[in-house]
Amino acid sequence: MTEVFATADLIDEHGxxxxxxxxxxxxxxxxxxxxxxxxxxxxxxxxxLVKEQLNQPGEGWVLVVDGGGSLRTALMGDxxxxxxxxxxxxxxxxxxxxxxxxxxxxxxxxxxxxxxNPRKSAKTGAGLLDAPVAFGGVVFTPEAWLYSDEDGVLVxxxxxxxxxxx
Length: 166
Hints:
alpha/beta; Glucose Oxidase, domain 1; ten-stranded mixed beta sheet; 12 strands; 17% helix; globular
């Protein structure tokens, strides 16, 4: 079951209780709106931890990857994204690049990233799991809630109910 929400309605109702990411992400996945509790990775041009996490059961969570804004290599491609969709992840937000853009569009997964680059990343496993990461004026804390749609990305310390329509 997918809850219907709009980030604009959430911010109108909850205002300053929400953080709004200032980065202008592109949407690459087949899901334009997604939400869930946050898991985090901080890595630079190395996607081994991303692959490891997304091959685990996602149970509706959103993986936030701080790739330092690098567009030199892709931190996720079609095979890792397909595993994420199969494993029940709601979405992935990457402060960096993806690849295999045409294939990503066909997956039932929310994917936001800064851009694309066909170059593969390193696979040494360098990085940090489950620690707060910050970009776009937002601190993404593990287990906080992320809400994303065509208008942007919001973060709440707790799960929000969709606003009631009058």
